[in-house]
Automatic annotation (TrEMBL):
Segments forming domain Peptidase M1 membrane alanine aminopeptidase: 370-570
Keywords (A to Z) from UniProt: Signal
UniProt protein name: Peptidase M1 membrane alanine aminopeptidase domain-containing protein
One GO location term (cellular component): membrane
Length: 794
């Protein structure tokens, strides 16, 4: 039922001495800076990055192409590699050295970046944790062993290793537009990632004696050289992830002959490494509408029992990617199906690799979740551009171009809980979604975790909702961030915090940015404006290196919304949302207000103000013989000055003027009947938390009907602590609920409700009158007549 709301002019209604100025909540009180522009907080604009948030006409980025051969020694658990890198200097700068990342050094106890944490005496410890402190630390045998670094002709290049970074000093300057070809040979012992942690390594299955390898951060990789950072050579500590360069990859992996390999890009020699039956199933899967087992469960179980000593080489190619990862194991079941991305008519192979321990879940859901994810993300960002998207069950979650590693195993009897199933689906969607953030929209993860994890978690939430409307998403909805926002201020930090310095990593880098974007979409901007702006950001920065300001500026540029107040509060601040209903004042109209005659007030125009103190500038100006002053003859006369009101009019100082206030007339019986059921409700709000947000109200009336109203966050712009809203209803109000759908992340809902119980609420009267036609009001303010408004002709 639609309820009538009377919106009445302030010139008609006056209540308890309130005027237009009073209702603005005294703009001079405690005004902070929550609505000020970000200004110099954002980086200075230049030819590389524009004020609109788009890449500028001078935008550039460097490129690196890789040709890599790898040899996986399963017996020694060692990886040996050789790579040729072609590095293109597209920057306007001359480079006399370049930087590469040696991420595997983080597994070494002597080569690692060594960002320590505080440690305390444990209350209890197991025998695996308790061991004598090794001072100085001895080499545990992990980390990159560089065999040689040479130019294209085989001549040694001078290099220096600094923990997880390697600088190569060039024999001659690499100028703008030139390319450098060089070679690196290396090896490293593959760590047990289950025991040692980290993203890459092996997992051993003791029951059948097999390993499952996830080969990540496995080759020396070029650092990013950019317009906003120069060389991004911050050390890799295991947390802040990666800043990487786009390029083309050709990779050959020599592995045991009974291993199945999946990797970034497309395999170019399936006809040489698969059996004829497996190749036929692969070709069938391309047009299948349900996942087809390319390597069956029976084949995987059989392969587990025979450790082949023969070798096979798998050849992969990938174009326009920032990284390359792969997996290898004889334990894999492998299924796939073709998926069409309608936005660009791209036929993608969605595939999954998993051991028998995950068969009950992954066979049912993994590849379908991969397909659902790339299709949904394509709607909200850009069409998925790559030919392959793959999910690998590896007991953990991590993302790379076209391939990701996830968890989700059943009990030994094949059963699983709803929690395990939903957790598996969530991590598959999240990690596959990383193909878009940051694999394509290629932000600097080493500096800003939120730009990949936060944005990706937000679209993950949208994708989970499309999978199942009742999906138990833990990140994205506003109410899910409340427990974090309730923490004491000394346990909170801004989203705009460097990746290495975040204490509450999950809530800060994943949940809070995802929640903020959801609030923008659902509550502040609306879906249409938000979705257009978000797609614009993805389109502008696909295959480029965006920074936070590029995102902030694009969201405003494409929507027409000034969101600086939101970035300032939600991303740069730690204040929570806690808006409270402080008081509700009720009034009804006095329908018998006596009429008032128009009043006349006499006044004289004051003389123009003059400076009471001769400051040093005026004195020196008079003494300066090079300065000629304008002679104002009217000012010299001192008998009038000019006003502007529909043209200039002379106002005499000594003449008396008259101002009239409007008169009123009594209401007619028809008008009394119209307003007799009207009740006014003034609702006073207090901003207890500090973070401004829209005010959303649900009104419940005595007849059971409801009405909802929303005021934008700008209601706080004149007073960031207090605000008031007055409503006029022709039905009796029973209760008011603030933020009824919990969409602003308000941390205290106990102060969000008011009830008109009829016993404690005091109802007063406000005068209701009819304006007399034909009378003229000349401006008055606080009882003082403004001669500039009062003296002119009509």
């Amino acid at each position: 039922m639609k309820l009538k709301v009377a919106i009445l002019s302030l010139s008609v209604f006056t209540y308890a001495g309130f005027t237009a100025q009073n209702i603005q909540n005294n703009p001079g009180s405690n005004h902070g800076n929550k609505f000020e522009q970000l200004g110099t907080i954002l980086p200075t604009l230049n030819i590389y990055r524009t004020a609109s948030g788009a890449p500028g006409h001078g935008y550039w980025q460097n490129r690196a192409d890789y040709d890599i051969t790898a040899y996986l020694d399963e017996d020694k658990r060692n990886l040996k590699g050789s790579e040729t890198i072609t590095y293109y200097n597209n920057s306007p700068d001359d480079l006399d050295y370049i930087w590469l990342q040696l991420d595997e050094n983080q597994q070494s106890n002597v080569k690692k970046a060594d960002f320590p944490y505080s440690s305390t005496l444990p209350k209890a410890s197991n025998d695996q944790q308790l061991r004598p402190t090794d001072l100085p630390a001895t080499d545990n045998g992990y980390g990159v062993n560089l065999e040689k670094v040479t130019d294209a002709s085989g001549n040694p290049l001078k290099y220096t290793v600094n923990k997880t970074m390697m600088r190569i000093d060039l024999p001659k300057i690499l100028k703008k537009g030139e390319k450098l070809v060089f070679k690196v040979d290396w090896n490293y012992n593959i760590p047990n990632r289950i025991k040692m942690g980290g993203r890459g390594g092996y997992e051993n299955f003791a029951e059948d004696g097999n390993d499952l390898y996830t080969m990540t951060q496995w080759y020396p990789r070029m650092c990013v050289y950019s317009d906003f950072h120069g060389w991004q050579n911050h050390q890799f500590t295991g947390r802040g992830e990666f800043a990487l360069v786009f390029g083309n990859f050709k990779v050959s992996m020599n592995v045991p002959a009974d291993h199945i390999v999946g990797g970034t890009g497309e395999c170019k020699n399936y006809d040489q490494v698969l059996t004829s039956e497996q190749l036929a199933r692969y070709n069938k899967s391309k047009t299948a509408t349900e996942p087809v087992e390319i390597v069956t469960l029976d084949e995987a179980k059989k392969a587990e029992k025979n450790h082949s000593k023969q070798r096979k080489t798998w050849n992969f190619e990938a174009n326009d990617v920032r990284d390359f990862a792969w997996t290898s194991s004889r334990k894999f079941v492998w299924d796939g199906m073709g998926v069409l991305i309608p936005e660009n008519n791209n036929k993608v192979m969605a595939m999954s690799y998993y051991p028998k321990e995950a068969y009950g879940l992954y066979r049912k859901y993994s590849t379908k979740a991969v397909a659902h994810t790339i299709k949904t993300y394509s709607e909200f960002t850009i069409p998925y551009p790559y030919p392959v998207a793959q999910s690998v069950e590896a007991a953990n979650g991590m993302e790379y171009p076209m391939i990701c590693f996830n968890y989700g195993r059943t009990e030994k009897d094949g059963t699983y809980s709803e929690g395990i199933k939903n957790g598996m689906l969530g991590v598959v969607i999240h990690e596959v979604g990383h193909n878009f953030f940051p694999m394509i929209i290629n932000s600097d993860e080493r500096q800003w975790t939120w730009m990949d994890e936060g944005l990706n978690t937000f679209v993950e939430y949208l994708t989970e909702e499309r999978w199942d409307n009742k999906f138990p998403s833990k990140r994205g909805p506003a109410w899910t961030i409340v427990d974090y926002m309730k923490l004491p201020k000394d346990q909170l930090e801004p989203i705009m915090t460097n990746s290495e310095n975040i204490v509450q990593f999950g809530p800060n880098a994943y949940s809070k940015p995802a929640t903020g974007l959801n609030i923008l979409r659902e509550t502040i901007m609306g879906r249409e404006l938000f979705d257009k702006a978000f797609k614009t950001y993805a389109k502008r920065w696909a295959f480029k290196h965006p920074e936070p300001a590029d995102f902030f500026r694009t969201m405003e540029d494409a929507s027409g919304e000034d969101l600086d107040w939101f970035w300032r509060g939600w991303f740069y601040g730690t204040d929570p949302v806690d808006i409270a209903i402080d008081k509700v004042t009720i009034a009804t109209p006095d329908l018998n207000t006596p009429p008032r005659e128009a009043k006349e007030i006499k006044y004289k125009v004051d003389k123009p103000a003059v400076n009471e103190f001769e400051d040093i500038s005026k004195i020196r100006n008079r003494e300066d013989k090079n300065i000629t002053f304008y002679v104002d003859k009217d000012k010299e006369a001192q008998d009038f000055y000019y006003r502007y009101d529909r043209g200039q009019e002379k106002v005499d100082n000594n003449k008396e003027y008259t101002s009239k206030f409007e008169g009123t007339e009594p209401l007619t019986q028809k008008e009394k009947d119209k307003f007799k059921n009207l009740t006014a409700y003034q609702i006073d709000f207090v901003n207890k938390g500090g973070l401004v947000m829209p005010i959303i109200l649900e009104f419940t009336f005595e007849d059971g009907t409801k009405l909802t109203d929303k005021s934008s966050a700008q209601i706080w712009r004149m007073n960031e602590q207090k605000a008031s809203k007055t409503y006029y209803f022709d039905k009796k109000l029973k209760s008011i609920q603030l933020d009824p759908m919990r969409e602003t992340a308000d941390i205290d809902t106990s102060n969000n409700f008011w009830s008109n119980d009829g016993g404690t609420s005091q109802v007063s009267k406000f005068e209701l009158f009819k304006q007399k036609e034909g009378t003229n009001t000349r401006g008055a303010s606080n009882g003082k007549v403004n001669p500039m408004q009062a003296a002119g002709k009509k």
